[in-house]
Amino acid sequence: MQYSSSMVSERIRPQDFLARIPLFEGLSVQALDQIAAATTQVRSGRGSILFRQGDPCVGFHHVVYGRIKLTLRSPVGDEKVVRIISPGDSFGEALMFMGKPYIVTAQALEDSMLLHIGRDGLFSLLDSQPQLARTMIASLSQRLYKLMSDVESYSLRSGIQRVIGFLIKGDAPDEAATDITLPASKAVIASRLNLTPEHFSRILRELTEYDLIRVEGRRIIILDSARLRDYQG
Fold it and tell me: Would the pTM of this model clear 0.85, i.e. be above it?
């Protein structure tokens, strides 16, 4: 379930949200209380920096509402969006275990609230809850699998195939029109797909000209999912 700022009170009970994180499914009330004791609520206004590349990682974040972009910056200042974190998603677990600093910068795309689960409290729980360690390994393995799929997509697929894959996401019905709202600006989405904003816009225009989609600002309506999947450009 996704939450908006209007659905969440100023002070929340962290356990209610921790229990919904796949990582913590099935934990006892006592275990959740222990994790909650090491959890901090973090509110970030749109455009604010949550942490910067090189900052120490002493826990991981879970997004309650809002969206966060993770970016890399080149020595000459170019920014590459590597991931957009939506409500219900978490990030930072692998670096927390490795004891390494952040390799990305995190910035709020909109007003957001997150939970920061501290490393020390979580590690203490892992010592007494070995099944949690197995769950975390499975979760991190799934994240790695998704990362490898992304690398394959960006390395072996054309620009238009990347955009179509992003729009379809593999689960749209073949016939009915699908209404999609981009989770960020077109420039951010373009960076996430390893495209320039101009190239991304050209692809959207091409798909529009072939009556495959209709673009209304950040809203994109897929007019024919089957044809869109099969379109090669």
Answer: no
